[in-house]
Specification:
about 220 residues, eight-stranded antiparallel sheet, 3 helices, two-stranded antiparallel ribbon, Glucose Permease (Domain IIA), about 30% strand, elongated, alpha+beta
């Protein structure tokens, strides 16, 4: 009789508190599952600091050669030629300057109708007029520039190059040839597509170590 009463009391307790018991069991199950999942993930993906890998292998990543070259040249700024290294230059054609040097600012281009730099000067000339070397040197290259047309580039001492553009298609020199000041390079043409609005002229430029320099400073402009 006593056991029967205990059984009835237990069933009554379960019936009354069953909802809370189920809720508690669910919470315990969720917490247990989360714990095992967390410990399993940590075991599967061990933390490996970069410093530990470097110390154990003894291998360090070095910058690429390209990056090293860039870093090595940082801080180098172009400088104007000094009087000690100034190239002796004569006018390649006997004509006035019709378009000035504008490498450090924008100038209006009447052909393209926009503002752009102009890394040289335009010297007035007649179509077919002979173009001569402004200084003694070696023909570095002869090519047709997509903007400035047929071009001859001479290489000189101290990192100088002189550039003669808007030439006629046929030129008088070839790459590797040595020339003296006054030697004929070619004739004035009309091949510079970005300067067709101008009268016949020679586009003449001077560079030192690939930096454009105002040709007028060599031709009596300074």
């Amino acid at each position: 009789m006593q056991n029967e009463n205990k059984s009835k009391g237990f069933r009554a307790f379960v019936k009354e508190k069953g909802y809370y018991i189920v809720l508690l069991l669910c919470a315990v199950a969720v917490g247990t599952s989360g714990y095992f999942l967390l410990t399993r993930d940590r075991a599967a993906v061990p933390e490996t600091p970069t410093e530990s890998v470097t110390a154990s292998t003894g291998v360090q990543t070095a910058p690429s050669q390209k990056t090293a070259d860039v870093v090595a040249t940082q801080g180098d700024e172009p400088t104007e030629p000094t009087s000690a290294t100034r190239l002796a230059v004569q006018r390649p054609v006997d004509g006035a300057t019709v378009t000035g040097f504008a490498a450090d600012h924008l100038a209006y281009n009447t052909t393209t109708r926009d503002w752009r730099t102009h890394e040289g000067i335009d010297l007035q000339a007649e179509a077919g007029q002979k173009v001569t070397a402004a200084a003694a040197g070696t023909v570095y290259t002869v090519y047709e520039d997509e903007s400035l047309g047929m071009t001859v580039v001479l290489r000189h001492a101290d990192g100088y190059t002189t550039h003669y553009s808007n030439l006629a298609e046929e030129v008088n020199v070839t790459a590797g040839q040595s020339v003296a000041a006054g030697d004929v390079l070619g004739t004035v043409g009309d091949t510079a597509c970005v300067e067709t609005a101008l009268e016949p002229h020679l586009h003449f430029a001077v560079y030192q170590n690939n930096v454009p320099v105002d040709p007028e400073s060599f031709l009596g402009g300074e």
